[in-house]
Amino acid sequence: MFQNFDDVSDSSTSASRVADLRERLKAFDIDGMVIPRADRHQNEYIPESEARLEWLSAFTGSAGTAVVLPHKAAVLSDGRYTIQLREQIDIAVFDPVSSVETSLGDYLSEHGKGLTIGIDPWLVTISGVKRLKDALEARGGKLVMLADNPIDLAWTDRPTASAPAVRLQPIEFAGRQAADKIAEIARAVEAAGCDLTVLTDPASVSWLFNIRGNDVAHTPLVLSFATVSKTGEAVLFVDPRKLGDEVKAALEAVARIAPYEDFTQGLRALAAGAKTGLDKDLAVAAIEEIVREAGGTVMAMDDPVRLPRARKNEAEIAGSRAAHKRDGAAMVACLAWLDRQAPGSVSEIEVAEALEQSRIRFGEADGEALQDISFDTIAGAGPHGAIVHYRVNRASNRTLCDGELFLLDSGGQYRDGTTDITRTIAIGEPVADMRAMFTRVLKGMIGISLARFPKGTRGVDLDVLARIALWKAGVDYAHGTGHGVGAFLAVHEGPQTLSRRGMTAFEPGMIVSNEPGYYKEGAYGIRIENLVLVTRESDIEGGETSMMGFETLTLCPIDRRLIDPGLMTAEEITWLDAYHAQVRGALTPMLDVDEAAWLAEATRPLAS
User: Fold this and answer.
1) Cβ-based neighbours of 342, under 8 Å, separated by 6 or more
2) What is the pLDDT of residues 230-289, one digit of tens each?
3) What is the DSSP letter of 575?
4) Rounded to an integer, what distance in angstroms lies between the CA atom of residue 148 and that of residue 127?
5) Mapping DSSP to helix (H, G, I), strand (E, B) and coil, where does residue 216 land?
6) Adjacent-strand bridge partners of 235
7) Strand partners, 56
8) What is the number of alpha carbons within 13 Å of residue 361 lying toward its C-beta?
9) Which residues make beta-bridge pairs with 77?
10) How are beta strands 275-278 and 297-300 bridged, if at all?
11) In whole angstroms, how large is the CA radius of gyration of the chain?
């Protein structure tokens, strides 16, 4: 199994660890400390050795920050983790705070007046440091960069970092040679008026050099830094233990290889007297300080790899389509199996296990083995479905009961693509309220699927299409409608998003999720998610402006039992019936007789 279900969260030690941390802070001559869930690369998934927030607070969500002050402590996280945060932390030690309602800067402005607060500059971005500094100084406080992390000094059984082998991403899936990509980035560096840039995001480094790894859970990243100069010289800082002879030879053909532990020294030499481009939202503050100490000039520069990485080339698009086809077959096989189980006879964990085995089966049958799941499967029955990023464990494991909804959000990592899909399933007979809310969510998902939009359109411009049916009913959801997705890379990839914060214009080749939802705390959750590909501009008959649109990549039926046709328009019903026909035609040849029969029933036209 790529996922284990052990309950790793234990808040019983939080009180003693916070008390010990407060004593240690005195030796640093500071009043408090900010502890983000972060590593030096700002990864979504971090190595166990970097899980400082979890060690201190027991909170395991993928986004969060702790603040420890002399007489107060808090953990801040966003709307995805509102319920999980309260359940995991010791509220006698930490206040749970919504980062949507109260930013970290706002919290420090309110509670950090006149205090000296420390941070580890390897864990906070350049822009993040500025926000914290401004918030504290406005209230007479002070921000201090710590040479040592007090958490690391107290964490005596901290895991050691592993060194899994680096693999080459075949050109049939990568679509472009690493040398061509490096040359493109070199041109971008020169165009930005810089001498070199530092790539701190391992997804950018892995894409640029056509390499993949196993350094963090569920995302095939190689933890590494890289620099690219305006003249095309590239340096890759990576643990040499990870490089076999073939991989090393391929990398040495396009770059100089240096040990990961030599990054500080190597960057200091490269940045001396040079204009160095840093993405201030991605690069940590320690890197800025290295450049300045070397006599270099820090230039604000967006990571030049992010947009080329987001614009999938033809090979990456073809790979994604193939990955979604086999992944859809795996989903159908699992859902057909689940439909045969009597309510009350199967648990959340059993479904997650069955789905992973189904992905393994179809990966082997298609000749592209499942490499990993793309994130811990969200398998939420009944009230657990209302926890947006619920992670089932053996303690929380719940049976799927009659009359409930079951939310299943999962994905696979294949060499040719990354998938992410959510389906909400009726267990037994759904009540009218469930069907009404499900249909409103479906209307939002179809609204995005049908959208046509001109060049320059951003996620913030389209997000309302997914919410309007819910808003008309007086409800909403506290997460973005969609995130970018990589090509056998991160399942959450920027810069494109479909959300109120989505300020990057969509471009052909970008892949984004389409996942509106509704969550009734204590009762049920609903989310329907497909991945969609931004298409090239084309003319509309009778129109005057060429428009882009979305091609749906995900292939899996949507539960007809939860749809109220009376709430849908004719256009929405036409879209759904056409989508189901496409799913049926694509997947039936891959299924056994019983699975194909289930799919035929699940994809019947809505009116039949």
Assistant:
1) none
2) 999 999 999 999 999 999 999 999 999 999 999 999 999 999 999 999 999 999 999 999
3) H
4) 21
5) strand
6) 227, 256
7) none
8) 16
9) 98
10) parallel
11) 24
SS3 of 401-444: CCCEEEEEEECEEECCEECCEEEEEEECCCCHHHHHHHHHHHHH
C-alpha pair distances (Å), 280 with each of 88, 121, 125, 143, 287: 32, 13, 6, 18, 10
Which residue(s) pair with 404 in the sheet?
427
Name the token pair of 523.
Answer: 């009762």
| DSSP string of 314-344, one letter each residue | HHHHHHHHHHHHHHHHHHHHHHHHHHTSPTT
Q: Which amino acid is at 309?
A: R
Domains of the chain as residue ranges with CATH: 11-154 (3.40.350.10), 167-309 (3.40.350.10), 311-602 (3.90.230.10)
CA distance 128 to 119: 11
Q: How far is CA 54 from CA 107, 294, 321, 509, in A?
A: 20, 35, 37, 37
The answer to whether the Cα torsion of 468, 470, 475, 477 is positive or negative is negative
CA angle, residues 181, 198, 149, in degrees to nearest 5: 140
What's the mean pLDDT when you consider all of the chain? Answer: 97
Is residue 175 within 8 Å of residue 316, measured between CB atoms?
Answer: yes
Question: Which tokens hold the place of 300?
Answer: 């604000």
pTM as predicted: 0.96
Quote the CA–CA distance of 134 and 41 in Å, as a whole number.
23
Report the candidate in 43, 35, 3 with the shortest Cα–Cα distance to residue 492: 43
Helical packing angle, 570-587 and 314-339, nearest 10°: 90
pLDDT digits (tens, 9 = 90+) for 24-77: 999 999 999 999 999 999 999 999 999 999 999 999 998 999 999 999 999 999
Instruction: Give the sheet arrangement for strand 65-69, strand by strand.
Output: 95-98, 72-77, 65-69, 32-36, 116-119, 142-145
Q: What 3-state class would DSSP assign to 28?
A: coil
* CA–CA separation, 260 and 266 (whole Å): 10
Q: Given the structure tokens 């409103």, which residue do they identify?
A: 440
Tell me the residue length of the chain: 608
Q: Which of 506, 503, 501 is nearest to 547 (CA)?
A: 506
Instruction: Count Cα atoms within 13 angstroms, Cβ side, for 104.
Output: 25
**CA 82 to chain CA centroid, nearest Å:** 17
SS3 of residue 115 by DSSP: coil
Q: Residue for token digits 């971008």? A: 188
Residue 28: CB atoms within 10 Å: 16
Q: How far is CA 224 from the centre of its chain?
A: 19
Question: How far is residue 438 CA from its own chain's centroid?
Answer: 24
Helix (H, G, I), strand (E, B) or coil at 582: helix
Phi/psi for 244 (5° steps) reads -75, 175
Q: Are 66 and 57 in contact (CB under 8 A)?
A: yes
Place of tokens 């440091």: 129
Digit-coded pLDDT (tens) for 267-282: 999 999 999 999 999 9
d(CA 361, CA 353): 12
